[in-house]
Fold Cysteine-rich RLK (RECEPTOR-like protein kinase) 37.
Amino acid sequence: MLSKSPKMSKQLRKIVILILLGIRALLKKLIHIYPRFRLCRTTTAYAANSTFATNLSVALMTLRNTTAATGFNATTVGNSSFDSVTALALCRASLSSQDCQTCVDAATLGIRNACPSETMAQVWYTLCMVRYSRMNFINKSDSSIALVLFNTLETPNPEEYDRKVKILIQNLSYAAGVSDTRSAVAKTSFGTRNIYGYVDCTRDINGSDCTTCLLNAAYAIPSCCSGKWAGWIATPTCSIQFNMDPIDHDDWMNNPPEINTDISPALGASPAVGPSEYGRPPHGGRGRLNGKETSIVIAVVVSFIPIVGVAVRWRVRRGKGKRVVATEEITTTMMETESIEVRSFVYDLDVLVAATDNFSPANRLGGGGFGSVYRGKLASNEEIAVKKLRAGSMQGIKEFLNEVTLLVNMQHRNLVKLLGCYGEGEEMMLTRRLKQEGRLMELVDVTMGSFPQEDVLRCIQIGLLCCKESVQDRPTIYSTLVMLTDNSVTLPLGHQDNHIMMENAPMSPESFSNNSMTVSLANGR
């Protein structure tokens, strides 16, 4: 029988602590190398061997070499207004130089991969941001909303939560304006938990512009993030974050200053809540392990590698489930609209999968050539209908975005409201509020009446015959009247018309002529 040794127990505790610290450090490293959002904009693409490309490489290399020392740097390379590059990098104020360097290294490489030929781009990582443009934006504040992410989890007592978030962000906005680092962090109590807030601006703008930018960003909270567990709203020059889970950031974990949100801040008042109050994360004491202990640690760490892999995968999936994510084509188009509401319409795939029980056949309401419609229920118990487009429906990303934008901006009492969308690769979905009362058929024109199915199909078939590309294949007016009035007449069998596949038909130069005009005259038949 094994006896318990206090010394061995202490050693095992030390080993477990080392393993947990190692896993936490590994997970923290991972958040440096995955971008959260990218924004690529251009009017003209630059060539790989152009002067602009060379200047961009120099500018990004300058950021890699100089940002970590202070957490911020901006530079302009080139003299020509067409080929010059202005670039900027910003790290979270509490980051150590080493962590800032890691994040900026990833971001300066990632922005080239994310936006390979754009003359204006910006990428946000969890702990840093990199931006470049052909235009010189130094000392110029830009308050246009560029990024909106939020956790889909709802908070208890959302009205009180929203009120506290508003006051917290207002306090932090004023504090950042007078901070040398143009940043501020704090927490406020919310029931038995805390709400953590962080704001920052690029350090090239003045304090007044910083506060104004942050307050403008905060105006978007009711539209996108009301009652949400966490939110992140950013413009090109400032960013606000709030969260009830502080685990991702040391400045939230290390007991940041607390703000009383029972009263609103006076205009211009700024609590002292800058990064200097909490400083760098404290370093623990250092000790040594003997050879035997070292061997045990190595063996245990090696055995934990599969667990770490599972933890990493869970972490990435958890991050995806907590925020709204979409392909950059969809999100970028949303950001270019003037409506804040449009930007918050993008759903996470995991949310729709959970709502529809992985698109269970039991939840299928119907379908057609476009795809299928499924019944679902969100975590908030709101019932929805998810239109999942078929992969071969021939609807591309451009057409999908046009449909989403149109439906969002259409308002009518007989239209079921569009709640959101999702798009990635060939997976494209639209989400509407499920109509609970009444019947959709009641919205059909009451003068249409009811007709036998065979009569409807006969009219459709005659209509298709009249749409033939070749005039010789179309029925005459007399034949059409006979087919419509005499059901004993057998209709010709239809076949796929040539013009349906015209987009895929090969075309040769001989098919066209220069400086010519074709005039079509209607002739009676």
